[in-house]
């Protein structure tokens, strides 16, 4: 989740964790050709992001889903770290 939304929920800023989240959103978008969080109504969009609510595109295989779900985990303390994300199986296949 972006750092601006995390601070409002009491989390300290962690640049690497925020970057991993952003890269997870980008990876989802590259594979699915759509964003995981999307709504024309900004308050609704922010609510989807804060809750981590998204639907999987059929274009995203299970291995990529495993990685992406670990990248866009709401709690930055539970989010996959940079190095394990870089060597994840879905990025090697």
Draw up the topology in text.
Layout: H1 3-7, H2 15-32, H3 42-51, H4 62-71, H5 82-86, H6 89-92
Helix pairs in contact: 2-4
What does this structure look like?
- Helix content is 56%, strand content 0%.
- The longest helix has 18 residues, at 15-32.
- With 93 residues, the chain is an all-alpha fold.
- Helix 2 (15-32) packs antiparallel against helix 4.
- The protein has one domain (3-92): Transferase(Phosphotransferase), domain 1 (Orthogonal Bundle), CATH 1.10.510.
Q: What's the main sheet like?
A: none
What is the distance, rounded to the nearest whole angstrom, between the alpha carbons of the first and last residues?
A: 26 Å
Task: Estimate the helix proportion, in percent.
Answer: 55-70%
Question: Helical stretch count?
Answer: 6
Strand and helix order: HHHHHH
Rough shape?
flat
CATH-derived architecture? Orthogonal Bundle
Number of strands: 0
Query: Might you state the CATH topology name?
Result: Transferase(Phosphotransferase), domain 1
- Strand proportion, as a percent range, falls in under 5%
Overall mean pLDDT stands at: 87
Contiguous uncertain segments of 5+ residues: none
Annotated CATH homologous superfamily:
Transferase(Phosphotransferase) domain 1
Work out the count of structural domains: 1
Question: What is the C-level CATH assignment?
Answer: Mainly Alpha
Radius of gyration: 13 Å
* Helix/sheet category: mainly alpha
Q: Give the oligomeric state.
A: single chain
């Amino acid at each position: 989740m972006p750092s601006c939304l995390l601070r409002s929920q009491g989390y300290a800023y962690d640049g690497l964790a925020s970057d991993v989240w952003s890269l997870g959103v980008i990876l989802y978008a590259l594979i699915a050709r759509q964003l995981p969080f999307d709504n024309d109504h900004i308050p609704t969009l922010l609510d989807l992001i804060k809750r981590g609510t998204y639907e999987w595109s059929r274009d995203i295989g299970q291995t990529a889903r495993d990685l992406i779900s670990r990248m866009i985990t709401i709690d930055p303390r539970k989010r996959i770290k940079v190095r394990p994300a870089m060597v994840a199986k879905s990025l090697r296949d």
